[in-house]
Amino acid sequence: MSGAVSGAVTSAVTSAPALSIEGIWKSFGQLDVLRGIDLEVAPHEVIALIGASGSGKSTLLRCINLIEPIDAGRILIAGDEITAQGVNVDRIRRRVGIVFQSFNLFPHMRVIDNITLAPRKVLGRSAAEAEAAAMTLLERFGLAEKAREYPDRLSGGQQQRVAIVRALAMEPDLLLLDEVTSALDPELVAEVLNVIRELAAGGMTMLIATHEMGFARDIASRVCFLDSGRILEQGSPRQIFAEPREARTRQFLNRIIEAGRL
Predict the structure, then answer these.
(1) How confident is the model at residue 21 (pLDDT cuts 50, 70, 90)?
(2) Cα–Cα distance, 229 to 36 (Å, whole number)
(3) CATH code of 43's domain
(4) pLDDT at position 5, please?
(5) What is the DSSP string of 143-174?
(6) Confidence bin at 166 (pLDDT 50/70/90)
(7) Is position 102 within any domain?
(8) Which terminus of the chain has fewer Cβ atoms in its 10 Å neighbourhood, N or C?
(9) Is residue 55 assigned to a domain?
């Protein structure tokens, strides 16, 4: 009997979505930024969040990482509610990595120290263990020779790749990417997008808020169009970009096409 129960529990755990968002609301003063967002993300799925500035994409990611508290609803990671009262926020953040458009690297620390700080302080890794893992990641993404450099000696694209490596060093279950190419010169965008492509190919579960429509079309398992704090439409990249159902989605994409960005 116990074996059957154990098997059922294991099956339930392994079949749980990587992320479940249920009816979350978030307001800043009188402004409702998120208005009843529902979203379920399967393990290894890559979700692209698109929409105009102010539609709620970045706020949604910040709520998932618990940087911003939600006003209503709940968020679950692999079946565990992370918005429940009394949850250890630091423990949750170990499971959810986030990378912002501003690199947020410590300028007084070398690349290797930026990457190993959290694994040593939060995960309790030894300096040698953390550095060995960091060097493996830096080599994987073509940055090994920059390990002893300070951030101001790196290009913007290199700094953003280091920021992604720093998030990966915590071995997260879920990676959130918030407009990670917005602060880069156009010629540096490709090197960051290539890193994200490799992560997707490797099975990393990701939510990506992006204005890079061609990239979203090529990499995403599913595309969600946000408008005024709601997911107005979602579907496969082909459906969203070729046959959007909602008039507001069509209007947004037409403007993107007119601007030569798709």
Answers:
(1) very high
(2) 8
(3) 3.40.50.300
(4) 40
(5) -GGGTTS-GGGS-HHHHHHHHHHHHHTT--SE
(6) very high
(7) yes
(8) N
(9) yes
> Whole-prediction pTM value?
0.89
Q: Which residues constitute the domain of residue 36?
A: 16-258
Q: For residue 2, is it within any domain?
A: no
Indicate the range of 26-30, 101-105, 115-119 predicted with least confidence. 101-105
CA distance to 115, 167, 169, 172, 245, per residue, from 137 (Å): 10, 11, 8, 14, 41
- Residue 8 inside a domain? The answer is no
Closest CA to 21 of 65, 54, 85, 67: 65
9-47 as b/e: b if 16+ CB within 10 A: eeeeeeebbbbbbbebbbeeeeebbbeebebebebebbb
> Looking at the predicted structure, is the pLDDT value of residue 4 above 60?
no
Instruction: Report the number of distinct structural domains present in the chain.
Output: 1
